[in-house]
Design a protein that fits this description.
The protein is 48% helix and 11% strand. With 323 residues, the chain is α/β, with parallel strands linked by helices. The model is unreliable at 317-323 (pLDDT under 50). Bound molecules: thiamine diphosphate and magnesium ion (MG).
């Protein structure tokens, strides 16, 4: 990546941070139906990952915590916000909500509230890309908790045996809800598990910009060129609660949670960029995020008829009146 590319990554990652903070404020004001799971701490990793991808021939699937991934793939921020807020004009007209974001035209196939459920879906996208010969790859982004699901292991096996171009991505934040990975995960590292299935696998620090660039570029290129699956485990801090507003009584207030965006800014300044330049980019990102969420808040709720229109769009067979 060029120095300019990296500055754009900085601004994009800060845009996602600011977007999540605006969503948090909207939730506090009672504008968001249900709970929201924010990606605070994973913005840099997700921006760097998606910068390597080429949607829509590449398709990403994500978990319940996927606002940032959809944005990093280029989904329209106002439409993402409107979906989270349950407003008309959202990615799915506000019917899916925060855990069900769809922007396949941008390469974001779907997020999924069923922990691990997004992983077999990515294998399907990889099989489709392979069959059609598009040169695309699929990327399944999951948490450390999801990485213990049976469907994930089945998908890894299938991906190796069918030789599917899929990159499995584990965002390891050390927690599944309030349960520590030290308790919930058997003592084998995700990398060792992946290698046992025959996957190429690497681990990366989600706040180390040089490591991210090197590792993600290499793995994405490898999956694309060989058409074979691989896995990357990224350590990312979860800077907030499991969901916004959670009390986090199970974590110590003294626990160190270094912010990857601060580490990246220190790195940029060490490379000779000015602190003022970084500040300007952060201010611009914040203004744009605020504008997108404010415009979404002003949208109406979907009309009841939307349900029928949307269901026929998803099911052309029923739209034609067949069984
Ligand atoms: C199949 C299933 N089991 C349990 C849940 C409840 N649940 C929602 S998020 C979550 C924790 C997931 O942890 P992880 O995969 O590490 O993702 P993180 O929240 O840390 O990003 C759980 C257990 C669910 N949504 N689906
Ligand atoms: Mg986790």
């Amino acid at each position: 990546m060029t120095p300019d590319d990296l500055k754009q990554v900085f601004e994009r990652a800060h845009f996602i941070r600011a977007f999540e903070q605006e969503i948090a404020a909207a939730a506090d004001a009672g504008e968001v139906p249900g709970l929201v799971h924010l990606c605070l701490g994973a913005e840099l990793f997700e921006t760097m990952l998606c910068a390597q991808l080429d949607g829509p021939r590449d398709q990403v699937t994500g978990s319940h915590r996927s606002h940032g991934l959809a944005l990093a793939m280029g989904a329209d921020a106002e439409q993402v916000a409107a979906e989270i807020l349950g407003r008309a004009g959202g990615l799915s007209e506000g019917l899916g909500g925060t855990q069900h974001l769809l922007a396949p035209e941008r390469g974001f196939l779907t997020s999924n509230g069923i922990v691990g459920g997004q992983v077999p879906l990515a294998a399907g996208a990889a099989l489709s890309a392979k069959t059609l010969g598009t040169g695309g790859i699929a990327v399944a982004v999951m948490g450390d908790g999801a990485s213990n699901q049976g469907a994930v292991f089945e998908t890894m096996n299938l991906a190796v045996s069918l030789k599917l171009p899929v990159l499995f991505v584990i965002e390891n934040n050390g927690f599944g809800q309030s349960t520590s990975a030290l308790y919930a995960t058997g003592g084998i590292s995700p990398i060792a598990r992946a290698r046992a299935f025959g996957l190429a696998a690497s681990t990366v620090d989600g706040g180390d910009i040089s490591g991210l660039e090197r590792t993600l570029e290499r793995l994405v290129a490898w999956v694309r060129e060989t058409g074979s699956p691989a896995l990357v485990e990224a350590s990312v801090p979860r800077l907030g609660g499991h969901y916004h507003g959670e009390a986090e009584t199970y974590r110590s207030a003294n626990e160190a949670r270094p912010d990857p965006l601060d580490r990246f800014e220190d790195w940029l300044i060490r490379q000779g960029n000015s602190a003022e330049g970084c500040h300007r980019r952060k201010v611009r990102a914040r203004e744009q995020a605020r504008g997108a969420v404010e415009r979404a808040i002003a949208l109406p709720e979907p009309a009841p008829e939307t349900l029928e229109v949307w269901s026929t769009r998803l099911s052309p067979v029923r739209a034609g009146g067949a069984a």
